[in-house]
Specification:
Blueprint lengths: L1 E3 L7 E3 L11 H30 L9 H12 L5 H23 L1 H7 L3 H14 L10 E2 H24 L10 H28 L5 H9 L2 H23 L4 H7 L1 H11 L1 H18 L7 H80 L6 H25 L2 H5 L2 H15 L3 E7 L10 H21 L4 E11 L2 E11 L4 H4 L10 H5 L6 H9 L4 E7 L2 E9 L19 E2 L1
Parallel strand pairs: 4-5
Antiparallel strand pairs: 1-2, 3-9, 5-6, 6-8, 7-8
Helix pairs in contact: 1-3, 2-5, 2-7, 3-4, 3-5, 4-6, 5-6, 6-7, 7-12, 7-13, 9-10, 9-11, 9-12, 10-13, 11-12, 11-13, 12-13, 13-14, 13-17, 16-17
Protein name: MASE1 domain-containing protein
Pfam family, one: MASE1
Keywords: Cell membrane, Membrane, Transmembrane, Transmembrane helix
Length: about 575
Amino acid sequence: MTTVQPPGGAGLVLNSFHPREVIPARGQGMWKRHGWSMLWQATVTVGYLALYALIRPLSDAHWQLTAGLRLGLLLLLPYRYWLALVIADTAASAYQSYLDAPRFGVPWAIASSLPLIAFAMPVVWLCREKLALFPSRRLVNFPILLLCALLVSAIWSLVKQGAMVLAKSPGVEITPMILIYLFVGAYVALLTTIPWVVIAKLDYRPGTPWKRLRGFIQGSLALEAAGLLIPMQLILSWLAFHANEQKPVYCLFMFMPVAWLTLKHGWRAAVLGGTFVVACICVLMNYDTPDPMVLQVQAIIAFAITCLIAMGARISAMHQREERERIDVKRAMRLARQSLYVGEMRLRQASETLEHVNGELQLSQNRLLHRFQVMLPANESRMYSKQAATLRDKVQQIAATMHPIAWRRKDLPAALRENIGDVLNAAGIAYSYQIRGRGFGFGMHSSNLHTAIYRLACESVVYICTHMRCSHLRLTLRGVEIGDHRLVVLRVEGALGSSAFGALLFVEGERDRLAQKLGATRLELVELKDHANLFNGELHTRIKGDKLRLTFLLHDIPEMEQERLSTMPPPLRLWAH
């Protein structure tokens, strides 16, 4: 601190800063950000020139790979890097024009030095901003993508023909066929390169490129392409190489395996197969000058790839719709299982409440009877006690009907043994049960599955006893584990006795009250099958002689499973992932 003492006044305290503590100027951060921006611009420029230098030797008039590089970068990069792309494309074009200027003249060199990427920018901007080329980060609008490739190819072919007109010795006659030749070459190159750019844009996730590449190699598309597409293309290429006038026919046949893969896997298969076919055809059709047969083959290629990509996009949209329907069904079934479990929990709460009320009722009745015991005759006191006990038994029975007490206090096997067994014994039906396997205790199977097992067992018992006067009923429950999947087999079988008298030996009226005592709703076979379907299960019925058997196969489905849910586009639009 530094204190300045003016004459006759209070001291004025000033802060003394160390030179290292000087606050930087406000514009210094702006210059730092500007420096990073310039560095990124230079990186884009150098990267474009490096890619152009790698691709240019492989590019020719039949397959203009540099056209795919230009349009692909316009689709991928933000608008702030477009100026760097223009500068880089101008430098690359000027270098090539400078090398060929002595042969074709200065006017041609100046016209050829114009950046072709700049002529495509208005079209790309219109498609991206006004025509919804990318409706979201993971969707592409294929009609607009094909329209963009068509317009860009037309513009670039016009610019190139205009430059050829200015050449002093172009080497070929400038005719409308040259324009078509340039257009088809650029269009085919865009059809086989731009979809790969779109795939990279849609599938890119930070930190997962190698994982996705490994998944693609292990997928069915790569396996079928290696086993079917590549061998057939090699055979057809060999036939086309030795053919003279039938090369267009063999080139058309090359797209047949691509069409088969497209029907199965969608537009990605069309891109993979189309690129491989075009590469084979370009090797076969290595001509330096335009030729009618080459133009015919290029037209076939352009038409075939366009149709395959459009068809593949439609098929992919259909696959997405099927996937969305499958996920909706999964959600509905999961909601139904949750509703079934929530309803069972409410019944359990109501049963526990009734059991608690029944205990309080017993205490109140005992106190009341004990108080008035000296005032009532002995027979009336016994009558009131019997009525109170009957009332408590009815309340207890209602609570057990809502939710088995043995299930709450013990486990599912106890409920199947005690609750169902007591009701059947009261109805005069012999009952036996058997449990095999593991998983019917606490924590092994899901609570939803235990609920379904008990309710299906009760409904099956009521169904069998309703449709036949069985004298013996057998229940078998078995748990099976196959890998990570857990299955449950529930079998309920009713049989008549050895004699007609044994079949008619039952307590009058008790069978009619089975549904009421077990809390069943008298479901029919169709409804029982629907309940089994909630757990991806099946229902099998078998009638053999004097036996009726119901067998349920249920899958244990964890309720906390995570599903891959994605936003699906409207099915009538050619949008695809």
